[in-house]
Amino acid sequence: MAYAAGPVMAIYLLSTRMPKLAFVGTNAWFFLCVNFLKLPFQMFAWHNINLTTLAIDACAIPFVLFGAFLGIRLVKFLPEKGFRIFTTIVTIISVIVMLLA
């Protein structure tokens, strides 16, 4: 349930026909704001964030940086139409996986 907004946002942004860089930037800013709004609940109500989880998260930093580098390269490499096709396929796959989970 926590990631159900991803496909919805992708479908919305695809329907607006915005350029791929604006698509990626809008998506990133939207989820940055959403996740910052969830922080107080995660820390104080649900107690999901503590020193142990932060230490584990720190171990993921190299993978996050590698993923960001790879994502930037992929977005620059793909033409607009290829980006839309790729995003549509990945969105469909993610919806199917969520429905089966």
What features would you describe in this structure?
The mean pLDDT is 94. The longest helix has 26 residues. The N and C termini lie close together (10 Å). With 101 residues, the protein is an all-alpha fold. The protein is globular. It contains five helices and no strands.
Low-confidence stretches: none
Order of helices and strands: HHHHH
- State the separation between the terminal residues, measured CA to CA: 10 Å
Strand content: under 5%
* Morphology call: globular
Number of strand elements: 0
Keywords:
101 residues, mainly alpha, 5 helices, 0% strand
Task: Write a concise synopsis of the structure shown.
This protein has helices at residues 5-15, 20-45, 51-59, 61-77, 80-100. It has 101 residues and is mainly α.
List the helices and strands and how they pair.
Blueprint lengths: L4 H11 L4 H26 L5 H9 L1 H17 L2 H21 L1
Helix pairs in contact: 1-5
